[in-house]
Amino acid sequence: MIKMTRRLTIRREAWPLAGAFTISRGSRTEAVVVVVELKQNGRIGRGECVPYPRYGETVENVITMIRDHEADLTAGLEREALRATMPAGAARNAIDCALWDLEAKLSGIPVVEAAGLTPPPPVTTAYTISLGTPEVMFAAAQKAKERPLLKVKLGGEGDEERIAAVREVAPQSVLIVDANEAWNEAGLAASVAACATAGVALIEQPLPSAHDDALRGTDFPVPICADESLHVAADLEKIRDRYDAVNIKLDKTGGLTEALATLKRAQELKFKVMIGCMVGTSLAMAPALLLTAEAAFVDLDAPLLLSRNRDPGLIYDGSIIRGYDSALWGGIA
Known about the structure:
This protein is α/β, with parallel strands linked by helices. It has 13 helices and 14 strands.
């Protein structure tokens, strides 16, 4: 019997944004992603990741990490072995999702079924208001005020005015805020109070992950969500006395395989769950969408921020995600 081998292809892609995407750490005008393709028996499985400098990732070192596993991948490396031998992060995410996609196409069993999940119902995604002056954020929120869920990027000094401006122009929207580690302990109480006054439903990562001990034992008026402080399931136990919720992103977990484990453990520990994303295309969103039925909040708006998206891509109806064509990822096409 002839053993079939796989062929690995790695590709860097840049996707222009419709406008600047700005958070406390900087601004960008394009989404730069790495796509992995694994070809076997005439079928191709794909996965996409977004290298993130906050975690020491660049396009170059992510591609190198993937290439370092080429021999094992072409020889038939499977997902659990990958999870055991490669660290969590963007590189592993692209490979893991490509393996899930390839398995679906070789077996004829869609990923949602193979993973023991139910197809996600239509879900409402947050829509991001980038960091800027209160006036700029007011104008951005004015254009998005009909969206039911807005994610407001904050950055430290002036945040009370920023969140008040967004709330003024979008009185009916549910608001979540994301400080991206920009707050400090001295101003924490005042910033949280401003969010409570604005009726904010959730605050993401207010303090740097290295300083989140300051959250321990405090009963805040707004639930606090871990982002940079949470990567994989093993992190959950040590942050349970600091956070009420966790943001699960596949580029942090290193793929759908670990994301499933992280979701299960988060539920066991009674965390609220957000399913989030980096700024990528629908190819990166599709695996995460499978987890959204179990989420209190969904933040998979990245394709809405692009000037163009993959075709086929996720199906957006305003802020509602209604699924995607199986040809995109995870189906049997």
